[in-house]
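User: Sequence recovery, please. Input:
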């Protein structure tokens, strides 16, 4: 059953910061996008984290869009890697002034991670540590991978049709948001799917497999429950919309859910424009 095409591929290198878009990505079984949510800003007053024996931690333990969406939306991140020397360069730009405020810093080094933690500690008033546990650990929002696979790494998929349905309903029913524009990237996906599939029909794929491009197969694990973090538009942080509340209000049959999480069953190259089908 044809579902549509891949129209967006995104990697969020630091949990809570903006993503960098990709034209293609190579996936391996049980992996996620390379370096996706590989780094996170842990609040030291919260739980301890052992990189030698990492476990999934709830997002309340981090500085991220769940705990401070306005602060995280203030900056636009750029991230790049080089295979020859292993550098992982991050730079931050203030969206309002368009001035670079940090970097490039190399998150592959302890000093680079310390620079990022110090910057956001000053901005947030929290004592933070930039943590990582290597490529085998993802600081994702869902525990579904950990519960079902004992692996934190998942891929987040958003159906463009669902985003459009929510936008149209809010415009029609909520007068103060008659001109609301919802961008699918607001929901922090790895993959954006666009096609003729019905809004919210992706929830029916849970427990099933989907084919993405010629070789990649994903096992859909769970629906994505939305938190207050998506209520702030990272492209326009001045506007706040209660997305979880409006999902539950206007689509009570689905509740505050938008998006699905999946695990890589079969790897390969995934590219923009690839066809997606239900197996």
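Assistant: Recovered sequence (279 residues):
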């Amino acid at each position: 059953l044809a579902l549509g095409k891949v129209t967006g591929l995104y990697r969020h290198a630091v949990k809570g910061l903006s993503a960098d878009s990709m034209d293609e990505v190579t996936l391996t079984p049980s992996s996620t996008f390379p370096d996706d949510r590989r780094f996170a800003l842990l609040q030291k007053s919260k739980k301890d984290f052992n990189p030698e024996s990492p476990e999934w931690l709830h997002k309340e333990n981090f500085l991220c869009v769940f705990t401070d969406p306005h602060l995280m939306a203030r900056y636009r991140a750029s991230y790049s890697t080089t295979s020859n020397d292993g550098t992982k360069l991050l730079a931050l730009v203030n969206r309002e002034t368009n001035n670079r405020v940090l970097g490039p810093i190399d998150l592959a080094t302890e000093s680079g991670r310390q620079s990022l933690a110090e910057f956001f500690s000053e901005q947030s008033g929290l004592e933070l540590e930039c943590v990582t546990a290597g490529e085998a650990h993802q600081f994702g929002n869902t525990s579904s991978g950990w519960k079902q696979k004992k692996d934190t790494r998942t891929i987040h998929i958003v159906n463009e049709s669902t985003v459009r349905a929510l936008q149209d309903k809010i415009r029609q029913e909520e007068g103060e948001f008659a001109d609301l524009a919802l961008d699918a990237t607001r929901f922090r996906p790895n993959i954006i799917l666009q096609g003729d599939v019905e809004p919210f029909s992706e929830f029916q794929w849970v427990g099933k497999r989907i084919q993405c491009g010629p070789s990649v197969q994903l096992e859909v694990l769970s629906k994505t429950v939305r938190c207050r973090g998506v209520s702030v538009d990272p492209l326009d942080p001045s506007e706040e919309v209660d997305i979880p509340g409006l999902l539950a209000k206007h689509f009570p049959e689905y509740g505050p859910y938008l998006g699905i999480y999946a695990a890589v069953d079969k790897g390969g190259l995934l590219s923009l424009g690839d066809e997606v089908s239900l197996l």
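The chain has five helices and 16 strands.
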